[in-house]
Amino acid sequence: MQITNSFKRALLSAAALSLVPVFTPCTAIADPQSEGQVIRFSIPPQALGDALRVFSEQSGTPILFSEDIVSGKTVPGLEGAFSPDNGLRILLGGSGLEAVTAPGGTRIIRKIAATPAREGARPQPIKQAEAVEPVRIEPQTEEEPGGVLRADKVTVTGTSLRGLAPESSPLQVYGRDEVLGSGATSLDQFIRTLPQNFGGGSTEFTTIGLPNDSNSRQNNTSGASANLRGLGSRGTLVLINGNRMAPTSEIGDFVDLSLIPMAAIERVEVLTDGASSIYGGDAVAGVINFILRDDFEGAETTASYGTVTEGRMEEYRFSQTAGTAWDSGNVLGAYDYSSRDNLTLADRPGIGLFQPRLAGDVLPEPRLLDLLPAQTRHSLLLSGRQQVGSKLSLSASGLYSQRDTERTRFNQNTSIDTYDTRSEGITLALGAEYEIGSSWAASLDASYGQIRNKQARFRIEHGMSPVSDHETDRENCLRRISGTS
User: What domains, with CATH codes, occur in the chain?
Assistant: First the structure.
């Protein structure tokens, strides 16, 4: 019997002309002054860090600096009329520090390099943040030349209301080193290690569902979801570089984390608080934003093998990453492959599958009953970014993933189902950002996501006689246009 059921929804998310203010740790309360304009300063002798804050207030110039590089330094003060650049140069005189101008007019304080940094050298990205800040500044490691500082945005992009998450919201940022150091071999494994994430919900461990979560019974593809605060997989919003992905399952209620290649991820931002008023109803439990690597240069190959302490399940993983970066942009390509055997009841004989009312039935062959399905996955991601002039930035990314699973399940009516499932997903995103002024920018983002799940089921009775087969073909395709200013 052939049953085909296809339903479509869509996602073309376009955040049109979203005006987002950019804040800095040292925020100026005066109106920004144009370059070369003379301002009267009155800064008494004091610690350098305090003097820089006063300078920012009096000049209206945003200034970023690390407390470590100004600690223990004092200044004799600054009295008189100067342009902001000359005044800041005088204030830093003899401190071993200098000010450089970042996009938007922000002045970044850094150590004076002993030797010029080599051309094309790129700073390393931020690895961890403890606070919710839309703009961060981090020094390079000691091994890197020049002590170069880099401003990097840390924002979880919303879809209903353009803006920033409240500073009281608990934002956790996990750098690539932390993700790899956790021992996880996939992003869904890493998310399961977070204390804010509930292990239940729609996962490959609970394909028959949970008593208090009827939606988890619809996970026919054995996908892996995030479930922050245990509020259900539908309540956690999952993004890639701030763009949505098409959902999976029979009812399209969650994003399959296993389709995202770990090799392409730079960091993971997790907003572990309800944010439905900002990001929409699908963020009632929180938001997870996977940020792609944007400064990788060279090639990277990884391979791993794993097995269980008891049983015969084996897992193979391979990934290849290649990229290049230049002063105004970058290109990245990443391929990820994984293959895993099934884990059967024969591998865990201590686990029972029968309710008391079924006592007395003969146990089917344990090796035919899967606790974890066999699966093979391919993921390919391409992304790029280019700065056009001093104000316009363009970006694009594309992700294709395919996952095949095979699972055998025992039913309470003593029948046995074998499922062969294929899940194919594609996510495309385009973005543009134009800097209007020193603290305002206009952005335009468009994305498209589609996922198609095909499943073939073969059912046999307890006596091993075939009774029926069943096929389903479902496609989720999200299209959405939205914009605020």
Answer: 12-18+157-483 (2.170.130.10), 24-118 (3.55.50.30)
